[in-house]
Every structure is written in structure tokens, then in C-alpha cells.
Design brief:
Helix 2 packs across helix 8, helix 3 (62-88) crosses helix 7 (138-166) and helix 7 runs antiparallel to helix 18. This protein is mainly α and 521 residues long. The protein has a single domain (25-252, 279-520), classed as Growth Hormone, Chain: A. It is 85% helix and 0% strand. The chain has 20 helices and no strands. It has helices spanning 2-15, 24-54, 62-88, 91-113, 117-120, 130-136, 138-166, 169-199, 206-212, 219-253, 259-273, 277-284, 288-318, 322-354, 357-380, 385-394, 399-431, 435-468, 475-502, 504-520.
Length: 521
């Protein structure tokens, strides 16, 4: 018993986050806002895939076309538009308006567009090409695109862009790891909301049924309306909390003990005034470390999205009904939240505190390459008699079902390490750069690199489908492409980890000065 107590005592001493008493109000608001944004994102992720993959006769083959025709252009336009807005309006005001506009569209889709699809959408011919679904079912494809932009714009660009400008270096290192637990909580709650609404439409509270059931055109529509109202309430609450957070940090920076924060903010404000898309690109291509960080984000989306399209196609083969499909996505999101909590507590936080930059950088690609290899194996050889015999003997089911659950494991583990290990590593990596690099790198890496990665994987998927047929036939070729991109990812991770190790001494010096300034105050 004493050995067990001493072990946990030692673990706590090495891995505790040391949130100081005067930091609790700021940290609590950051944690809660991230939690709420992630709840909505998890709900949106399930809805958008159900709308597009199950409702579409083209299955998951339509996903690459949506990325190319809708998602990437919208991300590019959004970054250009918001960089211009950022020079004219306060960043917190942009956050308010964008969050509420997104929530309003999701409500409009649920109560107006979805129930009137026969009128508003264009007629779909028999055996349509995948790209015709994009414009014929424009309401669903637009929903898919905006749902994908929710986390990128609201959380990564606006919220973290604002927060990074107002946090001290000493705070950043201690805040980022525990905030990952907010993503875990968001996944757990969002997943359970999705699975409850999709599986228990008949068991919903009487008030909800009386309000929405008369308007529902099918079982999934009742789920969609209920979830949309929940997301709207969460969005309003997020705006209110962010308003309080922005006021709190502004008041903190006007105090006499925040000279360092004011200097940091003033330095970054100078770069925001001259911010443009071209200046961001020019700056990044001159810094190899920023290029490596951009490649990590880019490859993380390219590699995973090649797997995602095939996974959703195989999932539809097992769950062709929209309600069942949404329920499985909700349960998968729930377990992803559990995995996020585990990696945040027992992997990301200890490695961050011990500054194991190389392990942090290479952990995510290794997890993805390993789990995707298992998934591709069962999907590729699903029709082989020896694998059918093996699957029925060991798992008492078909290779297709084993492959789908291996894909679910891949998706859950990858999402977990991406939102904990990779996210924390990326945010701390930004701290090692100059103020100008932080501002300009944030817009390109978080705003465009992710969308460019998705679009690149979409182009590859479209080419593979044109050459080899339906999505289920792409597994062996997608696996080969994965190996190539995985190698580039690992090399980029090695480079940025060396950059962080090289700059760790100066980073420690900056943090020491920050802590000394806080203690002196």
C-alpha cells in the first residue's frame, strides 16, 4: 500500500500542472470554452458524415469532391476574409459574429433546408457521378464544409490565436496539457448527445417530442433538429464566456504587474496591423522550422483522410440506415473522448513536463501508421477464404466487421493523439518562435495547411477512384501512399524536435524571466 502511495506521489510531483491560485479564473474560462467548442464539433462531425455519406447514392466517394469544390476554397476565402477583418475589427468581435453565424446556419439547415430537400435541392439522376452530388445536394455539402470549418476557425484560429497573444510563456507550458482534457470532455459529452438523440428518438423528453416531432419528416430529422438547438445554446454560451474571458485578460494587462504581457501584446499587435496572406507565406518559406511544422500539420490531414474515406464507405456497408450510422458515430466519438483523457493525463502531460520533444513529435505518425496498417489489411483481404476463416475463428464475425472496428480504433486513437500529443506539441512549438512567426505561422499553419492537406488527399482519392474503381478497392494503393507521406511526416517531426531541443535553453531563459517577473510582482 505504501509502495502504491509513493508511486502516485512521485507521479504527481513530476506531472502536476501547477495552476496557481491567481490563474484559476483565466484557466477555468479557457478550459470551459474549449470544452463547449469541442462538444459542438463532435456533434457536427457525426451529422455531416451522416448527411453526406448515407444520404448520398455516391457513398463516401463524394467526400473528396466536397473537399476540393467546397471545403478548401471556403477555407482559403475565410482566411483571406478574416485577415482583412482582423486589421479593421477587434479579434474578439470577429469571434462573436462568426460563432453565432455558424450556429444560425445549422439551425436554418435543420428547420428549413433538410425538410424541404425535394424542393430546394436539384434532382439527382440515376447512378450519378460523385461530383454531381456536390451541387445537386448543395445544402448538405455546404453543411459538411461549414461543420469542418467550425473547429479550425472558431477554436484554432480565433480562440487560440487570441489566447496565445495574451498568455505568458510560463502559463502556456502549464495550461496546454490540462486543457486537452477539455477536448476529452467535449468528445465524451458530444458523443453521448449524438448517440442518445439518434438511438432514443422515441425516449426523448415529452417536451422535445411535442416541439419537434410534428415538424420531423423522418426519424433522423428529429435527431437533427434536437442536436441543432443544443448546438445553438452551446454557441451562445461560448460567446458569453469568451466575452468574459476577453475582458478578464484585458483587465489583467492593464495592471501594474503585467509589464511583460503588455510588451508581448504590443509586439504582436504590430504584426497584426500589417497581416496579409502573402506576407504570411513569404515569412514561412524563409524558416525551415516553420516549414517542418507546416508539413506536420499538412501530412497529418493527408494521411488520415485517405483512411477516412475508405473507413466511412465500409461503415456504410454495415450501417446503411442514417439513424444507426449516426449512433455508431456517436459511440465512436464517446470512446475517442475517453482515449483523449487517457493520452492527456498519462502521455501528453508527462512528456511535456519532461520535454521529450522527439517522442512527442513522432508519437502521432507512429500511431496512425500502425493502426491504419491493421485496418487496410482486413479491408484489402476481406474476400480471402483464409482471412474469413481466421476472422470467424478468432472474432466470430466477418473480416469486413473486423476491418470496420479496426478502422474505428484507428479513428479514435488517432483523434486522441492528434488532439492531445500533437496539439500540445504544436502549440508549445509556436512558443519557441518569434512574435512575428507566431502570428503569421498561426494563420497559415492552422488556417490553411489543414485544409490544403484535406484537399490534397481528396485529389489523390479522386485519382485512385478513377484508376481502380470504388472506394473499397483503394485500400492497397492508399496504404502505399500512406507509407510515403508517413515517411515525410516522420522526417519533418525529427527536424522540428531538433529545433525545439536547440532552442530549449533560450525558451527556459524566457520562461525563467517570466516566472521571476510574476513572482516579483
Amino acid at each position: 500500500m505504501s509502495q502504491k502511495a509513493s508511486f502516485w506521489s512521485l507521479w504527481w510531483q513530476k506531472n502536476k500542472w501547477n495552476i496557481r491560485s491567481h490563474e484559476i479564473p483565466v484557466f477555468s474560462l479557457i478550459f470551459t470554452i474549449v470544452f463547449l467548442i469541442d462538444i459542438n464539433f463532435c456533434i457536427l462531425k457525426s451529422i455531416r458524415n451522416t448527411l453526406v455519406v448515407v444520404s448520398s447514392s455516391a457513398s463516401s466517394a463524394v467526400l473528396p469532391w466536397i473537399q476540393i469544390i467546397i471545403s478548401f476554397p471556403s477555407a482559403l476565402l475565410a482566411v483571406v476574409f478574416f485577415t482583412r477583418l482582423n486589421r479593421r475589427f477587434r479579434q474578439r468581435h470577429i469571434f462573436y459574429v462568426t460563432t453565432l453565424v455558424f450556429a444560425a446556419f445549422f439551425l436554418i439547415h435543420a428547420f428549413l433546408i433538410y425538410p424541404n430537400q425535394d424542393i430546394l435541392h436539384l434532382p439527382v439522376p440515376e447512378n450519378p457521378a460523385a461530383f454531381t452530388i456536390v451541387y445537386s445536394q448543395w445544402g448538405n455539402t455546404l453543411y459538411h464544409a461549414l461543420a469542418g470549418l467550425w473547429k479550425i476557425l472558431i477554436l484554432n484560429v480565433f480562440f487560440w490565436g487570441f489566447t496565445n497573444r495574451h498568455l505568458l510563456l510560463s502559463e502556456a507550458k502549464r495550461f496546454y496539457a490540462p486543457v486537452m482534457l477539455a477536448g476529452a470532455g467535449g468528445g465524451i459529452v458530444g458523443g453521448k448527445i449524438t448517440s442518445f438523440c439518434s438511438k432514443n428518438t422515441c425516449d426523448m423528453p415529452t417536451t422535445i417530442q411535442q416541439l419537434f416531432a410534428p415538424l420531423a419528416v423522418d426519424g433522423f430529422h428529429l435527431t437533427l433538429m434536437t442536436q441543432s438547438v443544443i448546438m445553438a445554446v452551446i454557441a451562445v454560451l461560448t460567446v458569453l464566456l469568451f466575452r468574459k474571458f476577453s475582458r478578464m485578460v484585458s483587465e489583467r494587462e492593464t495592471g501594474k504587474n503585467c509589464v511583460q504581457t503588455q510588451a508581448k501584446l504590443a509586439a504582436k499587435e504590430k504584426y497584426h496591423e500589417t497581416l496579409s496572406l502573402s506576407s504570411c507565406f513569404k515569412f514561412i518559406i524563409q524558416d525551415r522550422a516553420l516549414i517542418a511544422l507546416s508539413l506536420i500539420v499538412f501530412m497529418s490531414y493527408v494521411a488520415y483522410n485517405l483512411c477516412e474515406m475508405i473507413f466511412y464507405d465500409r461503415l456504410r456497408a454495415i450501417y446503411p440506415d442514417k439513424v444507426e450510422y449516426a449512433h455508431f458515430n456517436g459511440e465512436m466519438t464517446f470512446w475517442t473522448g475517453i482515449a483523449i483523457a487517457f493520452f492527456a493525463l498519462f502521455v501528453s502531460a508527462p512528456l511535456m513536463q519532461r520535454e521529450r520533444w522527439r517522442i512527442l513529435a513522432m508519437f502521432t505518425p507512429v500511431i496512425l501508421l500502425t493502426t491504419s496498417g491493421i485496418f487496410f489489411f482486413f479491408v484489402t483481404f476481406a474476400d480471402q477464404e483464409w482471412l474469413i476463416y481466421f476472422s470467424k475463428t478468432i472474432f466470430a464475425t466477418s473480416p469486413l466487421v473486423v476491418g470496420v472496428f479496426a478502422g474505428a480504433l484507428m479513428r479514435s486513437l488517432y483523434s486522441a493523439v492528434k488532439n492531445t500529443v500533437l496539439a500540445a506539441f504544436k502549440e508549445v512549438a509556436f512558443v519557441t518562435f518569434s512574435d512575428e512567426a507566431q502570428v503569421k505561422g498561426k494563420y497559415i499553419i492552422d488556417g490553411l495547411a489543414s485544409r490544403l492537406g484535406r484537399s490534397s488527399s481528396s485529389i489523390i482519392s479522386i485519382v485512385l477512384i478513377a484508376l481502380f474503381g470504388a472506394p473499397e478497392a483503394l485500400a492497397p494503393w492508399a496504404a502505399l501512399v500512406m507509407l510515403v507521406f508517413g515517411y515525410i511526416w516522420l522526417q519533418s517531426a525529427l527536424h522540428i524536435s531538433k529545433h525545439m531541443e536547440k532552442n530549449s535553453e533560450s525558451l527556459h531563459l524566457k520562461m525563467t524571466h517570466a516566472i521571476e517577473a510574476e513572482e516579483a510582482a
